[in-house]
Amino acid sequence: MPESVAEGLRALVVDDEEVVRSVVVEVLEGMGFATGPAQSLAEARQQMAAAGYDFLVVDKNLPDGSGLSLIREFGARNLDVQIVVMSGYATLSSAVDALQAGVADYVVKPFDLADFRARLQRAVEGLKLRRANRSLLSELQTKNAILEGLATRDPLTGLDNHASFQESVRKEIARGRRHGASCALVLASVDRFRDINKSLGFSGGDALLRSLGGFLQRNCRVSDLPAYLGGGDVMARFGGDTFALLLPETDRTGAATRAETLRRMLEGAELGTGLPRITVSIGVASFPEHAQEAEALIGAAFISMEAAKQAGRNRLICWSRELSQGGRLDAAQVRHEADKLGALDRSIRERAFRAVYQPIVDLAARSELAWEALARPTDPGFGSIVDALGAAERGGQVPALGRVLREIQVAAIGQLPAEKLLFLNVHPFEFLVADGIEKEAALQPWTKRIVLELTEAAEVSNFERARDRVAALRAAGFRIAVDDLGSGYSSLNSLALLEPDFVKLDMAMVRGISQGGRAARLIKHILEYCRGEGMRAICEGIETEEELRVVQELGVPLVQGYLLAHPGPAFPRAAVARIGPAR
Q: Which residues contact 19 (CB under 8 A, 6 or more apart)?
């Protein structure tokens, strides 16, 4: 038996009998161990805490307790210690207990020295084998991680690589099909990267891409958008100077807003010493709106990115079927989209909108309860506010547009009598942004007089979040209205779940209404529900005397429409003389 079998290892001997302790120490030191003695459990714990030991020889019965309790403590702490138990009162059950506790051997006193040395040597060899196996496993895991990284990671940036990203897109679309969820894809390409490579050399170009990858990892989730829009994102270097972002649970508007935020952040970003400032051209496509398969979704985002480059670079374009014909970009459509986005930027910057207002009339009081604020674009690039809003959705600028419109619309509220209200339209995307509308300085002095009108309430898919937002906005002083309530399940569902203060009935329900028709019966049911829940119903789109008469007979409390007043400058009065006597 080689005497140096335990060279470099430390052993602790725990026994209250000095003779036994001395013999064990002598045997261990002869094997090459550095040893330490202890007479009790308490002393052993102190020794183990003060210095690391590899080997423990412990008597089962000690003055202050069982040596097995010490063994169990070490096991709970997952200490890498090989343990041999000695006992002068051995029984089968005590040996089983010791082996179940994880000891390497169980020695009965008095012991034969030759047998004892052989047992200790086997225990030492077991310790070394265990540590070698652990080292091999760790090395194997490290190598597997490297191999997996080579298969899924881009070696330059550390982001996902092209193949891994494609697989993530396929999985997310499959998940979206199962759960009825949307997702979106963003592709961003560095503008004029070829010129940068020429200027910096390939090593400089690589440094720029590496720094950009780090920027994306640090900043892609930093935005004013709801947290749930950022969960589970996948970032990748798609190829060359093109980066990709997969956004689960995100529709076109959310993806475009997020991508536009990123584009603007990159415009002024310092990516590193000696590296130039850059801009990116971004393409956005969403599932299932734009494509139903992974390859088609990636293709749609790529075409949109190419359109952004052709449209002048440093811009964002969302996919539309009009962008390409037979797989090739339609230059005229690209120019048209670029013109729209240019008009939107100009309109937001120059506040090129005028506010108009339409009264909401209380039929019982025969007077105006409130006015709805509307907006008209003054830039010739837009034919209507719907046109401007569509461009904002495609260009990721819904929050910016909404903020400007509200500032313009609320500017005249001081002209209203103190008891009158002002209705402001809010896009569903803005409605869900935490700490958004309630933080706008222009609105804060007037919150108790403002009704936030949620447009397209049926488009809200996350009603749990919507309820939280309603609570937060109410806490800030606002009242809530749901617009365009129709006969569909989703509309009625939004009414039940959001519990608004006001409910606006879709004008399609009012058009051509007759007292005995289905629309009239539905309105009656809605009115009954609203009264029971403390909501006030508004019939909008009233254009004829007959429509006014019927809704009045049905018991509708509030009305709005061209019959009573067209939208106009602050603040047109309603033709209340048209209102017949209450019935």
A: none
3-state secondary structure 164-178: HHHHHHHHHHHHHHH
C-alpha–C-alpha distance, residues 544 and 375, integer Å: 24
The pTM of this model reads 0.72
Instruction: Return mean pLDDT, the chain.
Output: 87
What are the pLDDT digits (tens) for 211-254?
Answer: 999 998 887 753 433 333 344 689 999 999 999 999 998 999 99
Q: State how far the Cα of 355 lies from the Cα of 368, in Å rounded to an integer.
A: 18
Distance CA 162, CA 237 (A): 7
Q: What does 493-510 look like in DSSP terms, one character per residue?
A: HHHHHH--SEEEEPHHHH
Closest by alpha carbon to 372, among 543, 544, 540, 526? 540
* Sheet bearing 10-14, strands edge to edge: 34-38, 10-14, 55-59, 82-87, 105-108
> What integer pLDDT is reported at residue 461 of this predicted model?
67
The predicted-structure confidence for 403-429, as pLDDT tens digits, reads as follows: 999 999 999 999 999 999 999 999 988
Q: Which residues pair with 286 in a beta bridge?
A: 184
Buried b (16+ CB within 10 A) or exposed e, 98-132: beebebbbbbeeebeeeebbebbeebbeebeeeee
